[in-house]
Predict the 3D structure of the following.
Amino acid sequence: MPASISIAEIDRDPSVAACSLTARNGETIAFRPLVADAGAAMGVYFRGLRVLTCRRFAQTPFDQATADAVCASIDRGTTLRMVGDAGGRIVSYFLLNFAFDPREVERYTAAGVTLDVHADCRVAPCVADAYQNQQLGGVMLAHLLDLARRLGRRRVILWGGVQARNERARYFYLKHGFTDVGQFMATAPDGQHINNYDMMREL
């Protein structure tokens, strides 16, 4: 089992949290922590996402201003941001966050789950449309969950849940060990009121 790791160690040397992956098409992808000088590449990644993909996420506007702001204010003690790097092009963006929205705490508590900010965390993954179906998402998620375990976390929840209409994503999470905790209604970025699933995985 890999040794434990700390955020301070990752700050000193981001490569200790990185790994190398091979896509189905043979391309090598470096899955590594986001660094401060990646603003331009992040902007290209954001702008390249399909409208449908963007509608799946409510947390972040996908524009250059957001990319610049994220890279200029990296705080791995709050959020470990991992990117898939294909020769300088960012092809995925995975977040491991160490805080909870009060609404999440309320929903999970109502479902009989007490979230612990010191032992639990939440994850939000996104793979560029052109790199989906390359067997990358599952491997990247597994690596991120292993990092969470090495950081001393015992459970992970989906940040913001997953939209019920996104059946493909829900199947992906179920396949990778997440279970349903409950359902809730929320307003999607396109203004629709839709059903969502809260999901959790033991580490």
Notes: The radius of gyration is 16 Å. Residues 7-202 form a domain with the Aminopeptidase fold (CATH 3.40.630.30).
